[in-house]
Write the structure tokens for this entry.
Amino acid sequence: MTDTTEKLAKLERENAELSGMMLATGVILTQLLQSMCKRELNPQAAAGRIMQTAREGIEGYAAVTDADPRVKERALQAVQQYEDQIRSVLAV
């Protein structure tokens, strides 16, 4: 039982570390994308182009690597989440 408890505790620590890294990466990425888009004449269109390219990259990567469909779906959801966040702060 102790071995299972130790393994579970280790997994919880690793999950917390990865979650923190993902959060920081997401915030930094969002800030960078917002800054890039704000410099464009049409920031909303720029955001759309960037996110469409990201979607195409995910689709291409998933097709070539036979990625787990759940991973692909979550990646596409994340792109939509970033797009929504970026568009919410850009001028219309």
